[in-house]
Design goal:
By secondary structure, the protein is of the alpha/beta class. It is built from eight helices and 13 strands.
Length: about 260
Amino acid sequence: MLPTNDRLLVLAGPCLVESADMFYHVADHLCTITRDLPVDLVLKGSYRKANRTSAGAFQGIGDENALSILAQARERFGKPVITDIHSDAEAAVAAEYVDVLQIPAFLSRQTSLLEAAAATGKTVNIKKAQFMAPEDVLKAAAKVVNAGNPHVWVTERGTSFGYHDLVVDFRGLVTMRSGGYPVIFDATHSVQQPSVGATSGGKREFIPALARAAAAVGIDGLFFETHPDPKNAKSDAATQLPLLESGEVLKRVLDHWRVGR
């Protein structure tokens, strides 16, 4: 699965698969707003959230249940789907249900996990760690390629700026593109404020501006999490884009992307 010069790859959906009804509602809306736009939509949903701030934080509705919802969405909407994996053993299991395996930022240096994802033959999307230099994510991508899988994307999601904030260095997008891999910008996790209190916070109001800026610099894809009622989302409530705002945000991003490509 490769982005094309005339269509923006869009990875979008809720942070977590909370229920079938909610996920299908989000997927239906995303399919509707992108129908006449020059984008290739990939539906996103984590089947389990392993990287939570607190031990008591909600992690999911059950692996098999959530993965089945993702697989059913692929059939129902005719779109590829992507989900995160957190351990070597999860790679082969999740690959039975989805088209793209995503490596979480905190795990992007984990060689065995990258190799396990590569072994499935699925496209592997690597989130650049918050502590990682742009050129270093290319080393992670090379681990997948060296394991026999050339289907790799790399994603910028902000860099640690002190203890509870992230900042985006847009020079990194240029550096990451020099590796020859499709580059995706994660507009929602880039505004996160990690581990503020019992949960992670964020500055949702900066999502549109950062997305437009990344598009103007030049990206192959845009990642964003969106939810019908973000403040009541079971994960990343502070940074998910309200679903009803997603269409207008995407249209404005496309205006800048046409200039930056």
